[in-house]
């Protein structure tokens, strides 16, 4: 009888131990699963936040993109200015202190989008009357004889000169900015890439 009781007691103890072990295992597994779920959500949220931050930084970078433009002539503060990439001629005129009383702006397209390294020239009314000039829609002085002024034309206008592409037009503008205005069309020979043959082709298309 005692042996039987001992046997039953041992079996009961084993069952209790197994029950405790199973309960502990199940409880620990549930906690681990919950932890993994939380970690997964945390990582996913961080990834979304990082992607959103990158998008914001990209948009901010686009908005903050700058261009450098020069304005001369009949404005109160002619100079070289740094503006946002989406700026127009009116923005440049405003930042230059506005036009003077002698400015001729009747044919200037003030809504035109500015380009990097562009030169905007605001002519004088008397200058136009005396020299018979007209203005194109960029506000750059252009003679009635159709010649392009290498001292005041924009990059796009310079590219209309035979043999002048993006690279040489940029060099002409850099020459004006770093050395000064051209004293004569012969100074174009100082531009790298413009030799005697090319100068002969374009000399009748330009003026200063």
Automatic annotation (TrEMBL):
Pfam families cross-referenced by the UniProt entry: HHH_3, SLBB
Keyword field: Membrane, Transmembrane, Transmembrane helix
Domain of life per record: Bacteria
All copies of domain Helix-hairpin-helix DNA-binding motif class, residue ranges: 156-175, 186-205
InterPro entries membership: Competence_ComEA_HhH, Endo/Exo/Phosphatase_dom_1, Hlx-hairpin-Hlx_DNA-bd_motif, RuvA_2-like, Soluble_ligand-bd
Record flagged with keyword Cytoplasm: no
Annotated protein name in UniProt: Helix-hairpin-helix domain-containing protein
Species per Swiss-Prot/TrEMBL record: Clostridium weizhouense
């Amino acid at each position: 009888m005692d042996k039987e009781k001992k046997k039953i007691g041992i079996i009961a103890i084993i069952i209790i131990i197994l029950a405790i072990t199973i309960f502990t295992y199940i409880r620990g597994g549930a906690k681990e699963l919950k932890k993994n779920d939380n970690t997964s959500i945390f990582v996913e949220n961080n990834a979304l936040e990082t992607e959103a931050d990158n998008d914001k930084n990209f948009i901010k970078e686009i908005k903050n993109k700058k261009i450098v433009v020069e304005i001369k002539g009949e404005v109160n503060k002619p100079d070289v200015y740094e503006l946002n990439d989406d700026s127009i001629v009116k923005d440049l005129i405003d930042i230059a202190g506005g036009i003077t009383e002698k400015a001729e702006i009747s044919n200037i397209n003030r809504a035109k989008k500015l380009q990097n390294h562009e030169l905007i020239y605001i002519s004088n009314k008397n200058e136009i009357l005396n020299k018979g000039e007209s203005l194109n829609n960029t506000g750059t002085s252009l003679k009635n004889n159709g010649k392009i002024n290498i001292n005041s034309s924009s990059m796009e206008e310079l590219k209309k000169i035979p043999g002048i592409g993006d690279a040489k037009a940029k060099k002409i503008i850099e020459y004006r900015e770093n050395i000064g205005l051209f004293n004569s069309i012969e100074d174009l020979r100082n531009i790298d890439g413009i030799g005697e043959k090319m100068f002969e082709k374009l000399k009748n298309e330009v003026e200063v």
